[in-house]
Amino acid sequence: MSAREFNFDGLVGPSHNYAGLSFGNVASFSNVKSASNPKLAALQGLAKMRALAARGFGQALLPPQDRPNFRLLRSIGFTGSDAEVLSKAAKEAPVILACAYSASPMWTANAATVSPSADSADGRAHFTAANLNNKLHRAFEHEQSARALRAIFKDDKHFAVHAALPGTPAFSDEGAANHTRLCKSHGSAGVEMFVYGRTEFDASAPAPKKYPARQTLEASQAVARLHGLAAERTVYIQQNPDVIDQGVFHNDVIAVGNANALFYHEQAFADEAGALDQLRRALDGVGADLNAIRVDTTRVPVADAVASYLFNSQLLSKDNGKMALVIPHECQEVSSVAAYLQDLVADGSVIDELIHFDLRQSMRNGGGPACLRLRVALTDAEAAAMHQGVVMTEALYHTLVAWVEKHYRDRLEPADLADPQLAIEVHNALDELSRLLGLPGLYA
Question: Where are the domains of the chain?
């Protein structure tokens, strides 16, 4: 069956800020408490969406989440009016206030895990909102993520949106950032690869020593069950614990796949040979050959891959049978990565084009092109059944640019999070956005 892949990018919210809340994310920690530019961040993200849509790639967006998270603040004892809650939190628990204002929902690769209808037992596209329970600032996101997904994919004839897994360490789930689908074509049955960092119920299994492993095997298996995936087309691979300790907090920082191509670093997996063997055997069952594009450590050290976000890129299928690699500008600023990419394109790889974007506001907060998007393969009927107001068009682009120019600040300092006016500005902006996108009541 014919299907097309849509990338749902996160629309950066009006309170985009650098709080440095994500232990294990080197870029996030490096820019903690510096001033951010919410307006520029949103415009950079919109420019990326517009450019890819203009190229004919399926492009849509997920709206930002409401901030600050007053539910979090009130649940831990801050009382009074909204202004009083903010004032008390700023004085008594500024880090928790920063959590309530987290900009992390912009990285929609963590919003959910998605299985297309070609893979599921009931022939529907399945979504499971990620519980993100490894970090306080993200652990509340799944409720609004599920709400947004249900509003966009509301036709239960075509879609099933599952609530997040239980919010316990055993089911720690970070969504599509640790999930890759490989296939012969987007509309045919594929192989779903779940990459996990640790096993909850096996103390003898290898695990990182410095930074936390955010995805468990148990969570990956649970999502596969919820989605009705066939065992012979589902592969579980352990991430290399040593690279987690080098700042590779998600698999999408060290590997990316599309169609039958897997672009990965030599040190990505705990057992590279075993991982590739599993994938080859599973892909053979769907009539596809694995195209493994291995980046050796001698060419690109892990530290350079993390600094440039080489693998936190997008692989997009083109009409000529080749693929474009969407990368941040930082890939041209790290010499080993720039040299590797030049050779990759010149050597006749399936990747024959590099598309660069300036995403510095997102990159400084720890997320590149792949973090910003959730991949959803849809048949023509499914694409028609989803809510059309979030599909990127030239008209929507200009509407959203005008909305950003109207509502967003161009400088946000850490101290501004205590300002009640900021909360009012965000609320007013999102109220208008819900009308612009045709999603009334999204933030109710």
Answer: 3-67+102-436
